[in-house]
Design a protein that fits this description.
The protein is an alpha/beta fold and about 500 residues long. The chain is built from 19 helices and 14 strands.
Length: about 500
């Protein structure tokens, strides 16, 4: 029997709570799904890793292995383990009311079975209660005396010191009372989904639910009527609600009434309609006058979606810098030069990185970083890890300048920037011959995933290929700032 032979599973129940239409499409039109992205694959992998560490909270258990849709076999193996008195079962499989579920951890406590649902997040989200509630419903329905239910999640205050300590890495929350109260809700929702699945495709328009709590994998199908470029959903910043505008029949950016928009959004729409730009030469000159030589352009790449800290002294999900690019010009009219750092192995890179960086940036340098608060944050972390560099780091932070506010405040704005002040959106507008298009690695998330792959892979050729792609991407981040600065300098000369 396959999973699709059941009306529902744990994941399908959660999908149905988010959107009945998504559940229906999954059941009957799975070919309409979007392709799984690399970032989604990375999230799945993170979940697997966290789950493996959580098992060590209850060592010595038996895992019910998933293979080739063998659902009947999983049910039978689970039944056999319970009958022979196994105290801990990982991925235990149950079926009740034509619903199939697998429990992360099922542990025999003093008063009965305890259910543990493992999450890679650092806090408990409301929808997690629905997740464990459907499991509780099915397992209790099978006649298994579940007396306690827990959500296991990441303790983001944990600091690694040597080997990972699962008891410190995780927080375990007793949610028994909450999910018992949800059992009536679970039963009602199951009946609603059954009725829906036995009928025609539900009619439901796009809305906030398309990405809450999860990104729906039918977005490509349901959103196909939305323009690919310059739609109402390209409206940036706070102010008018994009979904409210859509529900009023507005699809295109050009059709948004200007009088309802705050300044930033109004400029985006108005400039798009007129195909015009804003150049505040006075503000540009003020910024340029705040700079001096030698001039350094700094960008870090960081780990940031890692729940299991890789290095001593770091926390779960902490943004740990592992790479930098540093373009620099020593004097006005001088040659553009470049330094960079990216470790060649999986060892902790932090001390080597900060030592090299501190040697390469002189005390009197003007240091530019796009959205400098990010780079400042990483430098402050290095102050904590390596106090010997504290004074030098403070000097660098005090000497940092940031071009991004010129674009965020719309002092420099071109309609093709589409409301964005991101380096990746500004660069091809001001420097048309340059862009991130076509790079193997083209954003920070991909960079973080690539570095983890460098650490994990044993393939030397693959490791070197990824390394070259990382260096190319980070190098472009700082070269982009150099070129953008040159472009806006021309505007100031026209005063």
């Amino acid at each position: 029997m396959s999973e699709e032979s059941f009306y529902l599973s744990k994941s399908l129940f959660i999908r149905g709570l988010q959107c009945h239409k998504s559940l229906y499409l999954h059941k009957y039109y799975p070919e309409l799904k979007d392709e799984v992205t690399e970032s989604q694959e990375a999230i799945f992998q993170i979940g697997y890793e966290v789950g493996d560490y959580a098992k060590s909270l209850f060592p010595g258990g038996t895992e019910i292995v998933y293979e080739d849709n063998n659902y009947d076999e999983q049910l039978e193996l689970t039944r056999a383990e319970i009958e022979k008195g196994t105290a801990t079962i990982y991925e235990a499989a149950f079926s009740y009311d034509n619903i199939f579920i697998k429990a992360d951890i099922l542990h025999k406590g003093n008063d009965g079975w305890e259910l543990y649902e493992v999450k890679s997040a650092s806090d408990i989200h409301e929808h997690y209660y629905n997740d464990i509630s459907i499991q509780y419903y099915v397992i209790k329905g099978c006649g298994i005396p579940v007396t306690k239910a827990f959500i296991v999640y990441i303790n983001d205050q944990y600091v690694r010191n040597g080997e990972i300590e699962p008891r410190k890495l995780f927080t375990i929350a007793d949610v028994t009372a909450a999910i018992e109260q949800k059992q009536g809700f679970v039963k009602d929702e199951i009946e609603k989904m059954r009725t829906m699945l036995s009928g025609e495709l539900p009619v439901r328009d796009i809305g906030e639910h398309c990405s809450n709590p999860y990104e729906c994998d039918f977005s490509g199908h349901c959103w196909k009527h939305i323009p690919k470029e310059y739609s109402v959903f390209d409206l940036k910043g706070n102010g008018a609600n994009k979904y409210d505008l859509y529900r009023q029949g507005v699809l295109h950016l050009k059709d948004i009434p200007l009088d309802i928009l705050p300044y930033g959004q109004r400029i985006q729409v108005e400039m798009f309609i007129k195909k015009e730009s804003i150049i505040d030469r006075t503000k540009i000159k003020e910024f340029l006058d705040s700079l001096w030589y030698p001039m350094y352009f700094l960008d870090f790449e960081t780990l940031f979606m890692v729940p299991i800290p890789l290095f001593n002294g770091t926390n779960p999900y902490q943004k740990v810098a592992f790479q930098y690019s540093l373009h620099y010009i020593e004097k006005e009219g001088g040659e553009l030069k470049h330094h960079e750092f990216l470790p060649s192995n999986g060892n902790d890179p932090r001390e080597q990185l900060i030592k090299k960086l501190m040697n390469e940036i002189p005390d009197n340098a003007c240091v530019l970083a796009w959205n400098k608060s990010f780079e400042e944050g990483r430098l402050k972390e290095f102050k904590q890890w390596f106090p010997a560099y504290r004074e030098k780091i403070d000097i660098i932070i005090n000497n940092m300048r940031d071009p991004m506010p010129l674009f965020r405040s719309k002092d420099i704005y071109h309609w093709q920037m589409n409301g964005s002040s991101s380096l990746k959106d500004v660069l091809p507008v001001l420097v048309p011959e340059m862009s991130y298009y076509g790079l193997e690695i083209s954003n920070g998330g991909m960079a973080a995933n690539a570095y983890i792959e460098i650490i994990q892979t044993k393939d030397a050729n693959k490791k070197e290929k990824i390394r070259k792609a990382l260096l190319e991407y980070c190098r472009l981040d700082t070269l982009a700032m150099v070129k953008i600065l040159a472009a806006i300098s021309i505007y100031s000369c026209e005063l």
